[in-house]
Amino acid sequence: MDSSNIVAPIISSRALPARLAMTLTALATFSGPFIFGVAVANTIGGSIVLPSAVNMSAIIAAVCTAIFWGLLTWVLGIPSSASHAIIGGLIGAVVARAGWSSINLGGLLKVVIILFASPIIGFFVGYLVTRLVVLLSWNATPRINTFFKGGANCHLYCALVELWSK
Question: CA-to-CA distance for 124 and 113, rounded, in angstroms?
Fold first, then answer.
């Protein structure tokens, strides 16, 4: 789900052909852990729940819960994050299996703070960038569209780098 949110603006703006954009996204998703490591997986696996409380049934329950949540939000048209769905599913499965003592509240608090801070920070940064673009292109000629198309490609590459770091 997170990949689709990154690639959708690139395809809908026709900055890149759909096949190329999806190919780049697939390559980034596959190669990301090999290039940038697995920091998010380590945070989820070690900072939020005790590793000793996780077994195969907890992982299967977490993945099934995340899939169900993703499908439900898709049907209802609600934006959601696959990463947060996995975290919620894993927390629920671990609590059901080993109890509340198996949850690391410090790691969970970090995720919850980022969950609520990210949209607020994104709003302000998006507002500032939009104002900057409007200011810089105020009296521009129609040739500026070529520049913006290149900027959309830059967005894809930056988003793929962000996806790689997950």
Answer: 17
